[in-house]
Amino acid sequence: MTRVLVADDGHLIRAALIELLRTEGDVESVADTGDGRQVLPLARWPVPAGPSPS
Q1: Which end of the chain has fewer CB atoms at under 10 Å, N or C?
Q2: Backbone phi, then psi, for 44, in 5-degree steps?
Q3: Tens digit of each residue's pLDDT (9 = 90 or more) over 6-29
Q4: Bridge partners of 51?
Q5: Neighbour tally for 32: CB within 10 Å
Q6: The dihedral of CA 13, 27, 24, 49: what is its sign?
Q7: Which neighbouring-strand residues pair with 31?
Q8: How much is the pLDDT for 25?
Q9: In sequence order, what are the beta bridge partners of 4?
Q10: CB within 8 A of 3, min separation 6: which ones?
Q11: What percent of the chain has pLDDT over 90?
Q12: Hey, how many other C-beta atoms are within 10 angstroms of the C-beta on 28?
């Protein structure tokens, strides 16, 4: 399983990319953000359980 953090300031682009990733069987979107300052804190392991903090 490949885990992906989606970061883009465009909400619609981010949502579309996450939906596209859901169609892949071996890719999991574990978090998403529209704020570049949140990328590093979200990328730290282990990935928190639960819905993405967007």
Answers
A1: N
A2: -70, 145
A3: 999 999 999 999 999 999 989 988
A4: none
A5: 22
A6: negative
A7: 5
A8: 85
A9: 29
A10: 28, 30, 47
A11: 44
A12: 13
